């Protein structure tokens, strides 16, 4: 499905009173069906607009039901509307996947509830950097490191630190 079709469908659903919620089935981490970061951000924005519209609709329905309960009329439709209880809270957006990759989880995090299989996996790769210090290894093979004083990268970092520190 194209992005514009998906966002248009969510927009239409946000204005349709028959639609009470949104369920995202996101697939698996091995075969994610979301696109790039830009696509995920557009879909997240559409979901947030949906949630805002549905919460406003629920508040309006709750106020209408409360008003009709205080001022009952002979109209059958008004009595049935007053008899219904409308909650102004509750999850109207739910994301479900067997497993989550970082992109699918980013999209799912825009929903009010995120569900996963009991045996599902949530992959969260992160950036990590380690600096290997080589002085012990070099000393083991008899290598002597000599550096000039002008080899500083910044005020606190020396370019040859990995070779000289233990």
Ordered list of secondary-structure elements with their pairings:
Elements: H1 3-15, E1 22-25, H2 37-70, H3 76-83, E2 93-97, H4 102-108, E3 113-116, H5 135-140, H6 161-164
Parallel strand pairs: 1-2, 2-3
What does this structure look like?
With 166 residues, this protein is mainly alpha-helical. The chain has 6 helices and 3 strands, in the order H-E-H-H-E-H-E-H-H. It has helices spanning 3-15, 37-70, 76-83, 102-108, 135-140, 161-164; strands at residues 22-25, 93-97, 113-116. It has a 3-stranded parallel β-sheet with strand order 1-2-3, covered by helices on one side. Helix 4 links the parallel strand 2 and strand 3. The longest helix is centred in the N-terminal third of the chain and has 34 residues, at 37-70. The protein is elongated and about 90 Å long. The two termini are 55 Å apart.
Shape descriptor = elongated
Number of helices: 6
Rg: 28 Å
Give a short account of the largest sheet.
Answer: 3 strands, parallel
Helical residues, percent: 40-55%
Low-confidence stretches: 78-89
Order of helices and strands: HEHHEHEHH
Q: What gap, in angstroms, lies between the N and C termini? A: 55 Å
Write down the oligomeric state: single chain
Mean pLDDT: 78
Which characteristics define this entry?
3 strands, single chain, mainly alpha, three-stranded parallel β-sheet
Question: How would you summarize this macromolecular structure in one to three sentences?
Answer:
The chain is mainly α and about 170 residues long. About 45% of the residues lie in helices and about 10% in strands.
């Amino acid at each position: 499905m194209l992005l514009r079709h998906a966002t248009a469908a969510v927009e239409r659903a946000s204005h349709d009173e028959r639609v009470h919620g949104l369920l995202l089935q996101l697939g698996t981490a091995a075969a994610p069906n979301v696109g790039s970061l830009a696509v995920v951000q557009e879909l997240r924005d559409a979901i947030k607009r949906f949630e805002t519209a549905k919460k406003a609709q629920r508040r309006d329905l709750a106020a209408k039901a409360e008003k009709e309960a205080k001022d009952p009329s002979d109209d059958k439709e008004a009595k049935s509307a007053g008899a219904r209880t409308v909650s102004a809270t509750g999850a109207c957006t739910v994301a479900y996947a067997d497993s989550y990759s970082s992109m699918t989880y980013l999209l799912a995090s825009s929903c009010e509830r995120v569900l996963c299989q009991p045996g599902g996996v949530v992959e969260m790769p992160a950036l990590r950097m380690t600096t290997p210090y080589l002085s012990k290894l070099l000393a083991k093979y008899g290598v002597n490191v000599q550096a000039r004083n002008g080899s500083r990268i910044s005020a606190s970092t020396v370019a040859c630190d990995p070779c000289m520190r233990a």
